[in-house]
Structure formats: structure tokens, C-alpha cells
Amino acid sequence: MSNTVTTREEMNLITAINSGLRQEMARDPAVIMYGYDIGPIGGVFRVTEGLYDEFGPQRVIDTPLSENGVLGTAVGMAVRGLRPVVEMQFMGFFYNSFGQFVCSVANMYERTGGLCAVPMTIRMTFGGGIKPLLFHSESTETFLAHTPAVRVVCPSSPYQAKGMMAASIRSDDPVVFLEHTKQYRARREPVPTEEYLLSLDKAEIIKPGKDVTVIAWGGMVEQAQLALKNVDADVELIDLRSLAPLDVETILTSVKKTGRCVVVHEARRTLGPGAEISALVHENLLEWLLAPVQRVTAFDVNFPDNQTEDFYLPDAQRIQYGIEKVMNYRY
Amino acid sequence: MGQTKWSEPKVSEDFIRILEPSGVAKGEVPNVAPEELLKWYRSIVRTRAYEDMTIRMQRRGELSVTAQSRGEEAIGVGAMAALQAGDLVYPSYRQFSGHLYWNAPLARAMAGLFGAAPETIVAHLPIDEVDLPKVQFMPYGVILASQVTHAVGSAMADQLQGSTAVTMTFTGEGSTSEGDFHDALNFAGVFKAPCVIIVVNNGWSISVPASRQTGSATFAEKASAYGLPGARVDGNDVLAVYQTVSEAVARARSGEGSTLVECVTYRVVDHNTSDSSEVYRDDEQAAYWRTLDPLDRFTAYLEGQGILTDETKQQEADEAKAFVEAAAELARSVPRSTPETMFEHHLQGEPSWAERVQRAELQAELEGRNPFLADHQPGEGS
Ligand SMILES: Cc1ncc(C[n+]2csc(CCOP(=O)(O)OP(=O)(O)O)c2C)c(N)n1
């Protein structure tokens, strides 16, 4: 970043991502927006608003309604020099393109011995809390992060989102960019109007602390912040930001210091990302641990109906319970 | 807000039509008893009353999101009136007139819109055998076009088991771009599945116009690539829909296989309550299609035939109002789903260790206890 005075504007997650997309489209003619309901409507959440007017139908391409068609053709585009930014309207619809994701997006680079990179950004809304219809609240990051050779990032704040969007688009790797629907308009903060890049593989320590490490991402960061206020412990809060690759160094350094770890996710528990983080901590830091790693998660059920979803999703209260558990643990 | 909107050409009206927009019938009219025609009319009137009510409820915050079929109601009822008891339907979310034609329990649908879990709805709105609709309705396909593959498989199962049931499925034209749609047609062609596949071409897939879904001139002609007959019909003409679909049903029942029927209509309203169509389209086409309204047209026809009078119209309207209000009241009587219902109907048999532990955690939370404090033993948790 230059050291000239930065101008900032109040942005929410939507306008920050939009700002990042616009900036990258202006900077690099190879960048295109690709998916359905992204053109004149500007996305059902308005993330691509105004881009069609500014860059025209050759760069903001409304496609037929096929996730598999979108992702498959985007692979071909990426191979031929474009940098498609694919929009998946909801994570639940992305499943329709899962074969392309695992067998092509994630595989082409290696299969061609490094000759064909697949530089694309797959934007995807995810997460619950807005009480929509079935399959509009998915949080199955595991399916993504379990796939080798793709990056999976998840900014939780407008500032992170803009800088990480720019970095995702410039990355020569395929990047899945997770956008939490409930966070879209949850808060605003000053975001630089100029361009800046944020790392795609570094976790961020949101608040340092010495008693317990709490790890969260996406919508759970906000809930964790709320929980901190109610616990009698000095919490170190880590916003993971990247689910693949994991910033294991930051995690282990923190837990080595605190001796306690709580992983929070909206994803279901069994084989959720918390399982991996917990295993890593136990494998590497067993003798430093003052308590077993506690997972604070949703339950192992299909995302429930509107009337019961609040009892499914982890919230500040459940996180507080998790922190209290590890704080009071005695061997 | 964006400035550029789609400008769409007029949709081709080269299709099968019996009722002119004025309500005058041209050519041969299917032989349907006046009572039956009145039942169709009633299904449409009630659908409109129901959907207008759910839109108001959404605005009041009683439910989170809902869609309408306004202007497309002739398709659900016209098509499903061609079915008989024992048949099956795999719908999309815009065929409510067909559900009502077959007396599908409205209060259950509404309770679902309120966000109740299916378990709660079934438990609190039990339905006597006699009240069950005589055709079986599957839930609509949230994952677009998935229901079309299911319908073809369902039809194949009936065929393999010697049943003469016919399966009918509906999908929007946007959803024909999904691979599932093509898989369904391909299997239907190869296996001669007794299925009727109806594409409701209402011109829009949220903000994307039909012209962006296919390079073909029509959706009906896609059938030929899969070895199926295809027909294109005026979807706002309930008689033409009924006539065309009846032929397709007869074909399926006699073992000749599937037919693709494109019903041409127009989405004259927003996609659903979360949508604002003025962002991406002008109202010009919608305004034109409002003049082709299926209910106005059918009403004029029935009046011309002396089947409907001002008096019976008023009576039907009053009854529709009472009908949907009674359903709403019943739906509101369904208690909120209890949190534990989320665990139900996953795996059959004894609950696993994880399920027992997690159920116990939820229970602890509900009682204001720390769910993580229990020291779970291998056999424990329940
Ligand atoms: C696989 C999948 N992708 C996307 C969606 C989101 N979505 C719901 S309805 C809709 C438009 C469908 O258009 P169309 O098939 O023409 O039916 P219509 O709504 O016009 O009746 C979209 C994109 C979905 N439900 N499932």
C-alpha cells in the first residue's frame, strides 16, 4: 500500500466486495463476472450492482441457469486467459457443479504438470440466520476445504472482503470466496477506496489474549465477539479467514500460549473444519493443553426449518458455554 | 441501482390455442362437463385468493418469503385435470391451482410457509384417508429441475412394476438449462417412461430472460433431440392446456412414453417477495400479458356458455375468501415446532452416539445449562 493519505468510505460487506470487483475489472480486462442473475439485476444480493452498466454484457455475463455449465465453461475460460469471477447464488446450488469442482477446477493445474492454471474466483453465499428456503443456508465448507488444490477463503468484515477479493482475483489459483448472507448488511466500516491486497492464507488475530484461543470465521466471528464480553477469561480471538490452506502456524502459536482452544463453526460437527483444527492442536500441542479442544458447532442434522434454525446455529451463548467448559476443565 | 434493463422481444404466439383472449373458443373444444369447468374456475379463484393472502402475510412478517403463480394458474389446473386417481405429480412452486384442484390440504402448505417442521405439521394437521388427494404430490423441487429426474424415475418404477399410473412434472423454462432436465429427458426417451414433462415458459428466471436459456426457437422442440414428441401450447388457455396434456397423459398411459409440453405464459409479477422486477425489466411485456390473463379469459368463456353468472361469480369469490381464511386459521393453530424436531427423520433405527449426545446438548441448552459439561461415556448421552 502506498503511504499517501487513504480515503475511506463506509461500506458493508456487499459494497466492499462490489468495490473490489469494480476495481479489479477496471484494472484487468481479463476479469469477467460470470453466472446467472448478475447482470442488469446486479445479483440477488446486489453484489455485482452497477458492473453491467459500467463494463457491459461482454464482461458481465448472465448465463443460462446451470451451475455445472457455469463452472465447467469457466474452467475453459480460465485456461484461455480470462479470469472469471463466478457467482454461485447460494452454496446449496453449487452442489450441482461439484463434479466440475473436484475433477476439473481442482485438478487441471496438476494434471497438466503446471501448464494450465485455472485462475478463477468462485463467489458463493453461505450460512444461516436469514430464515430463507431450504438449501439457502448451507455451511458445508468441509466439502470445499477437503478438496486439495483450491483456496477457500472467508472474510468476515468489509475491510477484509475488499482486499481479499482483489487478492483472490489476482491469484493464479482457483479461489472459493465465501460470503456470509447474514453478514452482508450486518455492519459498515470505513474501507479504503483505493486498492489494497490482503493475504489469502493468513489468519487474523482480532483480539489478543492469554487464557483461551477462540477460532471462528464468517458469521461466527461476530458471535464470538459478543461472547467475549460475557466470559471471565482473556480470550485470544482468531478470525481464520482462510479455510484452505489453514494458517496452522498462527493457530498453534496461539494455543501454545493460551493452552486452551475453542473452535466455533456454523458447519455441522462431524468432520466439520473443527475436527481438523482440533486434531492438529492435539497432535502438535498435547503437552501444552490445559483442556481438550472444544468444538462449538451446529448439530449433525440437515439445516432445519425456519422455526427451529435459531436452536441449530451456534450463537454467543453457545460459544460462552464452550469457553467456560475449557476454562473450568480439570484433568 | 443499475440503469440497463433487458429489452425482450415479444414472445411467439405460435402455439396451440382454443380460447381466444376474448374468451371465445375457436375450433374443437374438449368435451368437459360444466361442473368440471366450474371446478377449474374455482381452483384458479382460490389460488389467487390464497396467494394474495400469503403475499399480505409476508408483508406483515408472518412468513419469510413466498412466490406467486399469478397469470400462470391455467397451467397447474389445466394439466392436472388430465390426471386420474393414482397418478403422481412432481411440481415446481407455481402449480398451486393444480394442488387445489386435487384438494391438497392447503393448511399444511401454509404451515410450511410459516416455517414449521414437517413433523409438526403432520402431527397437528392429521388428515383422514378420505381427505387425502387422490393423486400423490411430491414436494416441489427446491433444487431446480431435480424433480424432473425424480419424476422420470418414478414413472420408470411404475412401468417396471406394471402400474398404469402416469407421472406429471413441472419445471420453469430457466430450469431447462440445468443438467438434470436433460438427463430426465434422455432417460425418459430411452426407457419410454410414462411421464408428462411440462415446461412452464413464463419468460423469466428471476432476472434472466428466456432468450438466455436456449438457442432453440422453442422449448418444445428440445423434445425431438431425445426422441420424444413435444407440443407448444398457450399456457393462459386452460382448455388448450387440458386438451394437449390429456393427449400426452393418454400416450403415457398406453405405454408410448413421455411427452414434453411447453406451456407459454408470462411472469407478470415479481419472481417472489424478495424480488423487485423493475430493476431489470420494463413492464411492457408484462402489461401486454396481463391483457391475456387466464382467469379473465376463462371467466368470459364460462359466462358466454351460461355456466357462470354474476351471482355465482360472487358466490365463488366469497367462498374462496372463506376457504383460504379457514385454512390460514388452521395453519396458525399449528404450534411452533419444538427444537428437537430438527433431529427427526434422519436415520432410522436406534440413534447413534453422536445423535444421543447432541440431543442431550440441545436439551441442556434449552434448560439453561452448559451443554458441554456432561462427561460423556461411550454408551452414554441419551
Ligand atoms: C439448482 C438451483 N439453482 C438456482 C436456484 C435459485 N432459483 C430459484 S428459482 C430460480 C429461477 C427459476 O426460473 P424458472 O425455472 O424459469 O422458473 P420460474 O421461477 O420462472 O417459475 C432460481 C435461479 C435454485 N433454487 N436451484
Structure characteristics:
heterodimer, A: about 325 residues, alpha/beta, Rossmann fold, 7-stranded mixed sheet, 5-stranded mixed sheet, 14 strands, B: about 375 residues, about 10% strand, binds thiamine diphosphate
Low-confidence stretches of chain B: none
Helix content of chain B: 40-55%
Could you say how many structural domains of chain A there are in total? 2
Return the structural class of chain A.
alpha/beta
Question: Averaged pLDDT of chain A, please?
Answer: 97
Number of strands of chain A: 14
In percent terms, what proportion of residues of chain B is strand? 5-15%
* Spatial separation of the terminal alpha carbons of chain B: 54 Å
- How is the biggest beta sheet of chain B arranged? 6 strands, parallel
Helix percent band of chain A: 25-40%
Explain what you see.
- By secondary structure, chain A is an alpha/beta fold.
- Chain A folds into two domains: about 10-190, 3-Layer(aba) Sandwich (Rossmann fold); about 205-325, Rossmann fold, CATH 3.40.50.920.
- In chain A, about 35% of the residues lie in helices and about 20% in strands.
- Chain A is built from 13 helices and 14 strands.
- Chain A has helices at about 15-25, 50-55, 65-80, 90-95, 100-105, 110, 140-145, 160-170, 220-230, 250-260, 275-285, 310, 315-325; strands spanning about 10, 30-35, 60, 85-90, 120-125, 150-155, 175-180, 190, 205, 210-215, 235-240, 240-245, 260-270, 295-300.
- Chain A has a seven-stranded mixed sheet, sandwiched between helices.
- In chain A, helix 1 packs parallel to helix 8 (about 160-170).
- The longest helix of chain A has 15 residues, at about 15-25.
- Chain A is globular and about 60 Å long.
- Chain A starts with 7 loop residues before the first strand and ends with a helix.
- Chain B has about 375 residues and is of the alpha/beta class.
- Helices cover about 40% and strands about 10% of the residues of chain B.
- Chain B has helices spanning about 35-60, 75-80, 95-100, 105-115, 120-125, 145-160, 180-190, 220-225, 240-255, 285-290, 295-305, 310-330, 355-365; strands at about 90, 135, 165-170, 195-200, 205, 210, 230-235, 260-265.
- In chain B, the strands form two sheets. Chain B has a six-stranded parallel sheet with strand order 2-1-3-4-8-7, with helices on both faces. In chain B, strands 5-6 form a two-stranded antiparallel sheet.
- In chain B, a hairpin with a 2-residue loop joins strand 5 and strand 6 (about 210).
- The chains are: A alpha/beta (about 325), B alpha/beta (about 375).
- Thiamine diphosphate sits at the interface of chains B and A.
